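seq:
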Amino acid sequence: MTPISQDTVVDGRYRVMNKLGSGGMADVWCAEDLQLGRKVALKLLHARFAEDEDFIERFRREASSAAGLQHPNVVSVYDRGEWEGTYYIAMELLEGEVLKELIEREAPLGPERAIELTIQILRAARFAHRRSIIHRDFKPQNVMVDHEGRAKVTDFGIARSGASDMTETGSIMGTAQYLSPEQAQGHAVSAASDLYSVGIILYELLTGRVPFEGEAAVTIALKQVSEEPVPPSHFNPMLTPQLEEVVLRSLAKDPAYRYADADDFIAALEAARAGLVLPVEGSATTAFVPVAEEPVYAVVVEPRRRRWWLWLLPTVALLAAAIVGVLLLTDKDEKVIPRLIGTDVTTAARRLRNDGFKPVVERSRADAPRDQVIGQDPNPGVRVEVGSEVTLSVSDGPGTAGVPAVRGLTRERARSRLRRAGFAIEERRESSETVAAGRVIDTEPPSGSQLERGSSVTVILSTGPEQVSVPSVVGKDVEDARSELDEAGLTADVEREDSEEEPGTVLRQTPGAEAEVDAGSSVTLVVAQEPEQVDVPRVVGQTESEAAAALSGAGLEVNIVERDVDSPGEDGEVLSQNPAAGRKVDPGRRVTITVGRFDDSKLDPEGPTDEEGAPPTTPTTPTTPTTPSTGERR
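struct:
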């Protein structure tokens, strides 16, 4: 893996700025998201763990668990991925400090501040528990506190849905000082196990120390199982008994004796916080204590005739006390909870504050638009005391998803894949030299980008190569034709042809003028050239047929002229030619040949004679004399 330093770009997206810290399994860096232009906390798994499947699984689970928890008290996870053989998580970057550092610097904290921080942590736990996710490792090191005192829980690395907390038999997950007894024994865990860990955080906030210490993790785990914690008032005498009772109940060994859920824990802390304010002297309760004694004194001093008034006085006093008591109990400033469902969370929270209520926002994924109120507690129309909390269930949108890779797919397949991922689809068409028409060139934003489901993704479809119109170049000089085609985004393929036209003139073009073709296509130009001359072959003395064949083979035309001859031997013979043999002429030039013709009528009608003019003699056949059959040869 490339060593990480300032300006290192991780996975082509995150530019490292500076190191924020280091943990047991990963380093955390401040980085800039080059794609979205924001700062993030980039958590990189240590290289030595990159091949350990258990660590990789834990790292992946941290991202997937936290990505599903969008809440004001949970650190948001934006992205995760693999880079150069290791893994990373991109998270929300918080300006503040780790709660452990705050404890080490300021503990013990004031009860009011400790309660407020613990309630915020419990709200994160409540949100996770309602989604069947148990954190399993609540500790101050996993809580960030910003400059305004807001707490956010991070590191869901061993969070899981369900009960089991073991990767394999006997493998316990968590940090020893904050482990619940059942977790330390390797038993199944529940939401109550997280509440135990939060109770230890509260103990540490109030006292500056954890309830159980030891030289080894096993020693601490054994104490978690078998020893009772020292009451926190031993280290901080300023704690009220009610607040101490809250701490000790959260640390009960048996989960059944702890708070039933985060809501119960929060309610107990709110009650303890209210008990931090001392009663005001001269309250209504003490004003009526002596009333019961007054009639006894009156019976002794008053005359008998007025005794009925004395009996009436205690009744009136008691009635007055009851009325005052009722007024004191009921004279609270109450208002009706307005209907806020369907409004924007900012508007809803502002309205609640204006009415004197305290808005509490809980986010969850929903089909409703992000930041829209989808539920409220108490319900609309209920009268509650001013200053009470009103919980707003707010849509965090349908969640995010990565844009799937659809490059090169057909339009139909790309749209199907994007719809399955939860995105709306827009289209744009562009020409492409490399992507066939009807297939996807790319998407905007590109594949891998994290978007809220329901967002639009633009699919860029190829129309194939750009179409251009072929200009007319027939009759132009070939070089001018080349330039005009080049300007149109076309190329010229030149073929030469002998012609009487000016050499270099375009005679024909294919495709023809105004045809629509792909940019970069070739246009064939047939260009005139001056014909090459050929030698006239010698044909005198040849027969007519031989001469015609020789001249045609040389690319010349034949013109035959006949002339009478006196000798039969000259009949059909080429007597002369024009142009003469050896002359250079243009191909196709006409060559005239004179062919002899003998007239048969010039022959002697008596027939032919010999060389001396005498008619030829006819040989005779000798005969053998015969003797008659009746006579004898003599």
